[in-house]
Specification:
- By secondary structure, the protein is α+β, with helices and mostly antiparallel strands.
- It is built from two helices and four strands.
Length: about 80
Amino acid sequence: MENTILVRFGDLMLKGANKKRFIKALRQSVKEKVSHPKISFEHAHDRLYIHLGGADVETITKMLKRVSGIDSFSVVTETNQ
């Protein structure tokens, strides 16, 4: 099982025709501010998943707290069911 962080974009979902542009900008901001050699990113269904790959959860969540525009995030555990 691997820990993953689920990032929710919040009010960006209300942006209408510009929604894709705002989401792309926020994803880029997250990638710039949350840099670590072990993590990888996955974008799906207007959410961003950060696969930790063994990186320290506390370190990554501290980095995420510095990214403006994120509505919320949660640490989740992926299972094989």
